Amino acid sequence: MGEYFGVICSLVVTLLLASYATACDRCVHQSKVSFFSKPQPPLLSGSCGYGSLAIGFNEGRLAAASPSIYKDGAACGACFQIRCKDERICSKEGTKVLVSDRNDYDNKTDFVVSSRAFTAMAKKGIMAQQILKLGLADVEYKRVACDEYKNKNLGLRVEESSQKPNYLAVKLLYQGGQTEVVAMDVAQVGSSNWNYMSRKYGAVWDTSRVPNGALQFRFVVTAGFDGKWYWAKSVLPSDWKNGSIYDSGLQITDIAQEGCSPCDDSTWKQSI
């Protein structure tokens, strides 16, 4: 199992260093953003698997991200600051969105957002209908930390499909920082016999090799130009229940670096 994690870490380092020449916290990207017109958009049943939990995320400012951003679910729960470039009706600050789905709806955009998120880009005094009339907005965006997770530890929700002792599926919640979980293992508390877990879809990881007793977990997340280990030494009790959310005791606050050209987002920092 040590070899497995060594390979994962090496892959993370290789992928990061292969394209990063200059260290930036996160690059500013140019794109377009559209929105869902329905009050209850598909985002609430999106491919991240959050379901009804998503209703309480980020005050409803949710987004479906393009496959290149979504990364097979690694970006689930990630936050992005998005600002519209139409200075007549859009504020310099823009708004923050949380990824809860993959954008398979509009291939002209990097994000399709909830109407609440779209209207939140407007200047004060601008009516919602004025900005909604844009339909498709030219924007710039960057990855940012999720402020609502500042006082929350990483949570693990045991999915209803879990069947003790043959199958375990957990959903990761409240991942802070600007990182992505790229590997996950589980073991009995006090044991060094780790079993790897696979990303089933979105924010859900699973394994058919479930240890007995109380369970601990370890993770590799992207951080800086490298991968970083996190070890949650006691998370699930021996009598873990389907549908319950368990506190990992960990707060992830790291930033994964990007290579930006040019690496200057000073105008962005001055406006948010």
Automatic annotation (TrEMBL):
Pfam families: DPBB_1, Expansin_C
This protein's UniProt keywords: Signal
Organism expressing this protein natively: Erythranthe guttata (Yellow monkey flower)
Annotated signal peptide: 1-23
Domain called Expansin-like CBD: residue spans: 166-248
Protein family (similarity comment): Belongs to the expansin family.
Record-annotated Expansin-like EG45 domain positions: 45-151
Protein name as it appears in the record: Expansin-like EG45 domain-containing protein
Source taxon at top rank: Eukaryota
